[in-house]
C-alpha cells in the first residue's frame, strides 16, 4: 500500500490517494483550485495509477468540492454512508454560506456499511463513527495499522460538534468505542492537520482525558 496526501481548498482539507499496484482509490476529494487538481493529475501520471473509485469519510463541503470534477474526469463510482445523504445533498447551501464555488456531484453509486471490507487484498474496514456528522466513517487498514479518520479524531483534537446534525456525546462514543480500541500503534490520518497515533491521543488529547 502506498498513499499520498493533498492539502486542498481554503480549509486545508486532507485528500488522500491510496494505491495498491496500479489501482488507486481517492478519499475525500477536496480539490478546489486548478493547481490542486493539476498536482493530483501529475501524481497519477507519474505513478502510473488507475483511479477506481471515490470514498467519502463524510460530506461536509470542504471534503466534496472536487467530487464532480473527479467523477466527470475519470468516470469513477462514488461511495459514502447512507446516513450522510442529507449532508451531501445540502453541500451546495453550505458552499453559498462559505462563499465557495461548488458544482453538485452525482448520487452515490452505493453506500458503505459498518464492518464492510473493501478493496480486496488491502482489506479496508469501514467503521461508522457518527457525531461530527451522522454518516461519518473511518477507513481502517489493519495490515498496515493505519486509519483515515475524517473529521472525527485529530492530533490533540476532535471533530466540530457544534455543526447541524453533530452531537458531542455521539462523537465521543464513536472515538472511544470504534477508534481507540484499534491499538496504540495505529496511525491516525485525519481530515485536517498532521497525522498522529492512537497511543499519542490517549495520552495527550485533552478531549479524551475524562473519556477513557
Explain the overall architecture:
By secondary structure, the chain is of the alpha/beta class. It has a single domain (2-208), classed as Metallo-beta-lactamase, Chain A, CATH 3.60.15. It has helices at 34-47, 61-64, 67-74, 85-89, 91-98, 168-179, 198-204, and strands at residues 2-8, 13-20, 23-27, 50-55, 78-81, 110-112, 117-118, 124-128, 137-141, 146-150, 153-154, 157-158, 187-190, 196-197. Strands 1-2-3-4-5-6 form a 6-stranded mixed beta sheet, with helices on one face. It has a 6-stranded mixed beta sheet with strand order 7-8-9-10-13-14. It has a two-stranded antiparallel ribbon with strand order 11-12. The chain is globular and about 45 Å long.
Q: What are the SSEs and their pairings?
A:
Layout: E1 2-8, E2 13-20, E3 23-27, H1 34-47, E4 50-55, H2 61-64, H3 67-74, E5 78-81, H4 85-89, H5 91-98, E6 110-112, E7 117-118, E8 124-128, E9 137-141, E10 146-150, E11 153-154, E12 157-158, H6 168-179, E13 187-190, E14 196-197, H7 198-204
Parallel strand pairs: 3-4, 4-5, 5-6, 10-13
Antiparallel strand pairs: 1-2, 2-3, 7-8, 8-9, 9-10, 11-12, 13-14
Amino acid at each position: 500500500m502506498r498513499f499520498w496526501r493533498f492539502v486542498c481548498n481554503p480549509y486545508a482539507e486532507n485528500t488522500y490517494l491510496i494505491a495498491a499496484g496500479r489501482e488507486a482509490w481517492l478519499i475525500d476529494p477536496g480539490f478546489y483550485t486548478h493547481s490542486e487538481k493539476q498536482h493530483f493529475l501529475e501524481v497519477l501520471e507519474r505513478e502510473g495509477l488507475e483511479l477506481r473509485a471515490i470514498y467519502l469519510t463524510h460530506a461536509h463541503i470542504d471534503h466534496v468540492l472536487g467530487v464532480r470534477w473527479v467523477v466527470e474526469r475519470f468516470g469513477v463510482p462514488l461511495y459514502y454512508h447512507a446516513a450522510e445523504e442529507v449532508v451531501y445533498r445540502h453541500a451546495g447551501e453550505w458552499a453559498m454560506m462559505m462563499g465557495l464555488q461548488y458544482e453538485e456531484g452525482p448520487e452515490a453509486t452505493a453506500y458503505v456499511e459498518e464492518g464492510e471490507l473493501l478493496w480486496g487484498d488491502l482489506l479496508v474496514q469501514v467503521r461508522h463513527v457518527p457525531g461530527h456528522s451522522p454518516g461519518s466513517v473511518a477507513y481502517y487498514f489493519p495490515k498496515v495499522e493505519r486509519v483515515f479518520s475524517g473529521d472525527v479524531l485529530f492530533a490533540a483534537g476532535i471533530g466540530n460538534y457544534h455543526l447541524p446534525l453533530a452531537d458531542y456525546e455521539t462523537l465521543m462514543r464513536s472515538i472511544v468505542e470504534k477508534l481507540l480500541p484499534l491499538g496504540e500503534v495505529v496511525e491516525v490520518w485525519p481530515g485536517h492537520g498532521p497525522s498522529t497515533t492512537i497511543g499519542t491521543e490517549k495520552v495527550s488529547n485533552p478531549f479524551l482525558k475524562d473519556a477513557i
